[in-house]
Structure formats: structure tokens, C-alpha cells
Write the C-alpha cells for this entry.
Amino acid sequence: MLKYAAHRLFWMFPVLFGIGTITFFLMHAVPGGPWDETKNLPPPVVANLNHRYDLDDPLLIQYGKFIGNAARGDLGISYTFQDRDVSQVIRQGLPATTILAGLAFLISVGAGIPLGMIAAARQNTAVDFVSIALATVFASVPGFILGILLIMIFSVAWDLLPSGGWGSPSHVVLPALALSLLPMTFIARVTRASVLEVLGEDYVRTAEAKGMPPLVVHYRHVLRNALVPVITIIGAEAGALLTGSFIIETVFSVPGIGRLFVQGIMQRDYGLITGLVIFYATVITVVNLITDLLYAAVDPRIRYS
């Protein structure tokens, strides 16, 4: 197991190198530059800014400097945030994104697994049909539409929760709910399908024939064996929640790294965008590794070498 984890971590660095390289050249291939949003800058000012940030160097020279700095852990300078290091900007936005993604993860897992189990236990009943219908609706509606609907209901119509901002526990409720609905439906649907498959196994029917209480059968025999495919989707959604909150953070004015990423794209902030892409790739790689290692903990038949 340790050998497998070390092998995966070793190969993470070439992957990050490739992702950083692709992002660097793609960003420089996009028309425009970091100063396009600053209107009416005189050409001498633009030339001085390009010289200050080495943007007047040949592209390969800029790439060499980027790779050398990245190898030392230096992701560069942000043009948008007053010459602050990209690492510093990421650290500033990370707490808000972590809190938002963490609460959304708890909601999606805490509600998705029980809903999937209930739907499977009540297969072909009204409960099952309603859960499937709701899952289809939530999976079809874009995140920003859900966010706007929640604002209209809980902020505008009922005046129960703030529509945006950050700083108090009430500010995180609506964005976390909007962010959690889509992964919750995926987790519920995968849980339902997996539980239904396990319920048809002989050992489950044997336990039921022995007169074991339904709760004992479900939690001792069904849930553990149905968890492996559920862990797959949970791991994927965990990475997606932490790295895919761009729209929700923008809609609710959350000062997280997702909103910073959107601002970086709008401002052509090469250093910030490339640094955030590398950060996101690192998070996804680590989450995928943790998910793979959890397989063996849930199912002893799975071994890595």
C-alpha cells in the first residue's frame, strides 16, 4: 500500500509539470494581455509594465523562468492583486473555499447516502419515484440557476438568509446548499443502484430469512458491500466541490479561490491562473489517491501493488 501511494505521488510531479506547461502556453495564446482591462493606458506605460513583469521577453524565456520558479515553489506574481505572490493570494482565498466545499460535502454525503438507501428500500413506490424525479431535476438545473432561485426564495421572498457576502455562519448556508444539490443527487443515484444490486445477493436473502431486523441487514450486510462504487463518486465529488465552485462563489460573492480564478481570467492574470490550475490539479490528484486507498479499507479484497 505504501509503495503504491509513493508511486502515485512520484508520478504527480510529471503530471503537474505537463498541466503547468499546457496552461502557460494556452494563456499566452489567448488574444489580449493583462493590461487590456485598464483603458486608455499610454503605450509607454504599457511597455514599462511589460518590462517590469518580463512580458517583453521571448515566450520561451518566460517559460523557462516560470518552470524554474515553479520548481522552487514560487508560482509567480499576480498582476491583479497589487504584486502579491500567487501563493499568498491562494492562501487568502483558500479558507472561504474550504469552508464552503466542506459544508457542501457534508450535506451531499449526509443526505445523498440515506436518500439513496431509502429509495432502494422503497423501490417502485412513491418515495422512489419522487426521489428519482427530484434527482433528475437537480442534475439538470445549472448551479447558477439554483443559486439565483435560492436567493429569490430565502433572501428576497422570505428574508431569512443573506444573499451574498462572507463573515458569518449565515453567509455560508445558501452557497453551500446550492453547491451540494448536484453532487447529492449523483451520490443518491449511485447509492440506490449499488444497494439494489447488493439486495439481490444470496447472503442478504439468507440474513433476511434468518429473521434479522431490516436495519441490521441494511447496515451490517448491505451498506458496507455497496460502499465501493459510492466511494468512487464521493471522491470525485469531493475534488469537484473544492475545485469547481467558480460560479457559486461568483453568484454569492464568496471571497474564495473560485472567484479569484474568474477574476484572473477576466484580467488575463497569467501567474494567478497558472498557479490556481496547478493548485487544482494537485488537489484532484491527492483526492483521487485518497479515494483509491479507501477502496482497500472498505473492501479487503482490493489490494494495490
